[in-house]
Design a protein that fits this description.
6-stranded mixed β-sheet; 26% helix; 120 residues; 57% strand
Length: 120
């Protein structure tokens, strides 16, 4: 599977709200540097799994709509919007945030991520 296909599969899966699924995609030494509207945070394997578990407590469905995806060797750039359905209102899909991320793939896993986001 190509690096681009790995990233596409990651965003098509329920990994963002399923801590067991996300483990299949993460390299054990993964690091994500995330600049958000709330500031900078660096996440490792455990904190990404924990984040996915926390999101699953609030959301019953997660959907990513990719508008751009570019690949060069082991680097993949993705621009996407993240939509969710809450436990309180599972019929209504709401936009959570817009993202742009550059992923580096190593050993067919997500190894380094450089991400920026803006809440909707």
């Amino acid at each position: 599977m190509s690096a681009k296909e790995i990233v596409q599969q990651f965003y098509k899966s329920d990994a963002l709200i399923d801590s067991e699924v996300i483990k299949d995609f993460l390299h054990p030494e993964v690091i994500v540097e995330w600049n958000s509207s709330k500031g900078f945070v660096e996440l490792n394997y455990d904190s990404l799994v924990n984040l996915s578990a926390e999101l699953s407590k609030a959301y019953v469905r997660s959907k990513v709509r990719i508008s751009h995806i570019l690949s060069e060797n082991d680097l993949i750039s993705v621009r996407y919007s993240h939509f969710v359905k809450t436990i309180e209102n599972p019929r209504e899909e709401m936009l959570l945030a817009h993202f742009i991320v550059i992923w580096q793939i190593k050993d067919n896993k997500l190894f380094r991520g450089y991400q920026m986001s803006q809440l909707s």
